[in-house]
Amino acid sequence: MDRIATTVDELTAEFISGALNCDGAVQGVSATRIGTGQVALSLRLDLGLSDDAPPDLPQVLVAKIPSPDAESREAARMHLTYHKEVGFYRDLAGVVSVPHPTVRYAVIDAASGDFTLLMHQAHGDVGDQLAGCSLADATAMVDAAVGLHAPTWGRATELANDGWLTLPDPSGASTRQAIYSMLLPGFIDRFQHRLPTDVMDAARWLGDNLEQLLALFRLPLCVVHGDYRLDNMLFERTAQSSAVTVLDWQTAAFSRGPNDIAYGVGSGLLLDDRRSHESALAERYWNGLIGAGVDCTLDDVRHDYTIGTVSGLGMAVIASQVVTATERGDEMFAVMAERHAQQMIDNDVFALVYGGSG
Description:
The chain is α+β, with helices and mostly antiparallel strands. The protein has helices at residues 13-19, 70-78, 81-92, 135-152, 156-159, 172-191, 197-214, 257-268, 271-291, 298-308, 311-322, 327-347, and strands at residues 26-34, 40-49, 60-66, 103-108, 115-120, 125-126, 222-224, 233-237, 242-246, 253-255.
């Protein structure tokens, strides 16, 4: 039976040697916490290796295990968060071409949600959600998303499974609106004094119109990241361009590809840059899909992109209420809410819903 480590103390040399099928090769482990994740615990593992260790065994691994916080673990269990991340690496990593870390061990207990991931250390600088990103970073994000969406475009029935990648429930939009509406008062209570009135107005509008809006998508389903923003990416930058590695696959699901694009562009670019480059980035995404063999129109991509502008505000409202509150977390959710509410306004998503106006 595959073993699972759920605490730092369980990530022993013996455990890692066994997980990687190289008994005795790992003789020591030093673990250091990395990242600011609120859902799971990520650790850098510096390994002491034996002289006869396999040549492909790195001296540094990254481990991901359940959060030590009980509230975050329970939220992850309810939303299949850990199941999704393990499932992506186990079932989809070989299907898609989006840059992602190389995983050596991916095991989960389906009943409890306890899991262990061991992966190679990816290189680059972690994106900063609060600071925003350059146009080069946003361009890299868009291009990388094509490598996730195009290989899975229209293949939902083929790729679906009962464990973590289920087909959307016909009542899913209604359920999502119910969850959003249930959590919205807590968001308003916590953030109304730090966010402009138009942000709160957009949040309330979404509570009344989300289900109707989600019924208007035109494009087929594909696999999306679902939390496609800077904090979940590493960037290797040159003077002319950026290359991205996408991390944190715990929200992977079937949806429409432009959701990821609208979410990433809206949360990453600062206001003036987004307004200047948003349209061109959506067209670049469409060109990438066409180049990868996907049959779709630019008009449909733009239409679904407009719907996707609500994704970030929806995520800010819901996530802020289901993870443990931290100062940086609240700052991030406030920034997300403000950027995405303005994105909704600029793209006039309200016009898609009969009778809707911001």
